[in-house]
Amino acid sequence: MDPGVIGLSGFAVAMVLIALRVPIGFALAGLAIICTYLFFGFRGGEEFQAVRAVYPTMALISSNVFEFLHSYPLSMVPLFIALGHVAFHAGITTEIYFAVRVWLSRIPGGLAMASVVGCGGFSAITGSSVACASAMGRICIPEMTRFKYSPSLATSTVAVGGTLGALIPPSVLFIMYGLFTEQSVNKLFLAGVIPGLLSLLGFMTVIYIWARLRPEAGPVPDETYTVKERWIATARAWPALLLFVVIIGGIYGGIFTATEAAAVCLSVAIGYGVLARKLDWDKFLQAMKDTAVQSASIFFIAVCAKMFVAFVSLTGLTQDVLGLTEYYQMPNWAILVVIVLLYLLMGMFLDPLGIMLLTLPFVIPLVEGMGLDLIWFGVVVVKLLEIGLITPPVGLNVFIISSVVEKTVPVHTIFRGVINFLAMDLFVFALIVIFPVLSLFLPNSQF
């Protein structure tokens, strides 16, 4: 059997299984093992030999799994996840929201803006969009509801704010992209800073315009704060600011690697929580349990994807795709448009991490062939995945928010509000594509 046929069939079946909602890890691992077995069984154009295929299949699968897990940079995944959970239980992440809230309380839509900034601050520590949407939704939405914000604005604000966890470092998606493409995670983190801040600023602009055009959607609360109260609230957010400075400043200044920054920040967060008496033993254990579950889930998907990547490489399917683009003489802009549309389409239905790991074996060689910077392209991919988190019909963050509000707000109401932010998301994405310097300025100027 021709290796290209095996590779193409395996990829097609994988897409069908994922579309049928088979867990992506099981789909990729199962197909990788079966198709690799068939590849070695039919090797040399001979008749299928079952026994001959067993040893090379097991050797290839086990060696790829071991090499991936025996990777030092991979240790930053559980470290950053643990940092997020510890910071949440110690109250570090929520102080950002309350600090911004008192400053923006008298601005139309101010509470919604504070929610977006709070989500951005939460993301800058946790690196998880889902965790951000879930945690901040429980804090921000009841507060906005109490002051008569429209359900659409209150819920959609946190849904889109949660997507900032994909772009603002530390980001799990950046870590996995760096590991699979062999790019510097340090540079990827720095590359996401300016696009992440642009996205945050864009969301705040949409909220301001929304509240101006429809004052009843984002009314100004009947409350005032003194200058002293505002500065006190700001001072309480210092642990979050410290952690962000350690992560970005340490990496930018060449003091820490991303892994070292994660370890240092985790130690600081635990120390602060204990000294401030906000992190007791029960909360710490809960944070570690949540970290173990989330890390295991990510590792399982990543290992299964690594097995699938090895199978794809073995069959030469990637080279066939490259040959196809050369045969049809597709210009670079056309290839890039196809890639963007592919990610937007898949983002409507699939999990971001699964999309990225499934497509990278085919997309990265195309991008390298076009001579494009892989650090810049990492930001492009993560931004597209961020958009997919709120895109109908299966916007993951929208359904997370729906579960947070216990379905008191219909899903279509949340989506209706999210649509207002999608145009801004696409505008920021266009800026990232047209002006690569927005992503590459900080990495290229790193000390």
UniProtKB/TrEMBL annotation:
It is found in: Cell inner membrane. Keywords: Cell inner membrane, Cell membrane, Membrane, Transmembrane, Transmembrane helix, Transport. It is a multi-pass membrane protein. It holds the Pfam family DctM. The keyword Cytoplasm does not apply. The chain crosses the membrane at residues 12-40, 79-100, 112-141, 153-177, 189-211, 231-252, 258-275, 296-318, 330-350, 357-381, 387-405, 417-442. It comes from the Bacteria. Residues 11-436 form the TRAP C4-dicarboxylate transport system permease DctM subunit domain. The keyword Cytoplasm does not apply. Part of the tripartite ATP-independent periplasmic (TRAP) transport system. Belongs to the TRAP transporter large permease family. The complex comprises the extracytoplasmic solute receptor protein and the two transmembrane proteins. This is TRAP transporter large permease protein. It comes from Sneathiella chinensis.
